[in-house]
Amino acid sequence: MSEHKKYTSIKLNARVYNTYKTRPNTIPHALGEFIDNAIGSYQQNKERLIENEPNYKLHIYINIEWVDKKTTKIIIRDNAAGISEHAYQTAFEPAHKPEDDKGLNEFGMGMKDAALWLGDTWRVVSSALGEPIKRDLTFDLKKVADQNLTSLPYDETEEETWKHGTMIEITNPTHNAPVQTKLQKIQEDISGIYREFLRNNEIEIRINNDLLGFEEYEVLNAPYYATPKGKSQEWKVEFDTGLIMGRYRIHGFVGLLEQMSKRQRGIVLLRRGRVIRGEDENSCYEPKEIVSATASSPRAKRIFGEMFLEGFEVSHDKSEIMDMDALDSIMPEVRKMLKVGEYDLLAQGDNYRKKDIAKEVKSLVGKHKENKKPISIDVTEKPVKQPEVEPQSIVEEIIKEAYAIKDELYTLEVHFVNEGEDLFWLDTSEEEEKVLKCMVNCNHKFFETYPVKKSGQSSVRLLMALAVAKYCHQCDDVDDMVERFNEILGKI
Questions:
Q1: For residue 119, what are the contacts with CB-CB under 8 A and spacing of at least 6?
Q2: What is the pTM of this model?
Q3: 71: domain CATH number?
Q4: Which residue, 241, 216, 79, 90, is CA-closest to 151?
Q5: What are the residues facing 125 on neighbouring strands?
Q6: Pairing between strand 435-441 and 408-417?
Q7: How do residues 427-482 score in pLDDT, each as one tens digit?
Q8: Which domain holds residue 19?
Q9: Pfam families from the xrefs (predicted)?
Q10: DSSP string, 74-104
Q11: Helical residues (DSSP H) of 357-418, grouped into ranges
């Protein structure tokens, strides 16, 4: 097989390349650049790829290798159309925009930026559809910097014209390389970024042999809060703003989650089918007109949605919308679209509560039997921090239990409330009257996973023991609250 070398431009001062690894980025977004290139190549050459292979489907494989928990190599493979001879002349020049910049690989920076952010050495092997050549190039940052290179040699070997695709191998990892314990989170985030392509079954992505998929969120199906005995309906509204300001368009949906969820809540922003913001719970778009001005409100915990943006510009790493002022200014218009007649999605988010939570709590209180003998606990006194203002109880009934703490008889009252961020907290505002209050937040996601009617006595018992252990810990010289907690449980 014949082989010979050619050269391609990298056209940038070598010292600049050393700064790439210090730029802000994330593993999902860095790996996403390679996925974007593959999808872009597929979209631009879809007809040719299908003509070459009638049952064609884009496959992208990412494999991260670790030795002793340290990254040693990252390999990305795809069966897209490959890098053509014409494109090869400028493909490795940073910020050289492709001739067709309407796809995901619009800036001409992604692959180079991402590869150097992840590793100091990378190799690209590509076969372009319809060309009888396979091209092989290696970028070694140390060599480029030491010799101040502005072009790199690449090998050409003969290849069958029907073969196509690209392989990128990254070695000599930087400190940015993925950590093995974060593999599942990386898979979840990339699934979130490419949800639209995955749900349409348009592409297949595997990371370390695991096939990625996107699981749709469950939408609330319930009567309108104002008519609780009315017909149940799905709380999801699709909308389309049409063209605004002669340039922008937003379409998509906003809905309410069946279960409140920190991970699933929030608005996801997509552009050209790819998520720009919202691949995880920390990056969602949360306009106050839609989500709520208060992050802890019931609506904020339940509302979610996807907004597909047209006409908006993004940052070069595709992690931010550059026209945020324009986007924010359109949200009041979107808000209006979420109310159709008496179907008011935002009002439902503000006011809907699981109808049976109070009944479950009442049932639990009814089943509780007070201890005949107070539970005895010895402590050494220390100042106790006073609590915040007590919230409103959702039921009048409370659980009461006696505890002998340092030979003093205390009453622990369990109050069931429906607000706050924490699962439970201790209120000592009536400490002088020997009354401690364990405030249990029935609106916490814990009770959505383990409902009161199922977890019942056991879960509340644990919270009661924790509350007393916390009080003892606050006024005790003993540092180990867990030891105190176990002691109390042993006496119940």
A1: 74, 170, 171, 172, 173, 174, 177
A2: 0.70
A3: 3.30.565.10
A4: 90
A5: 136, 167
A6: parallel
A7: 877 777 788 888 888 777 777 667 665 445 677 788 888 888 888 776 655 456 66
A8: 3-211
A9: HATPase_c_3
A10: EEEEE-S----HHHHTTTTSTT---S--SSS
A11: 357-367
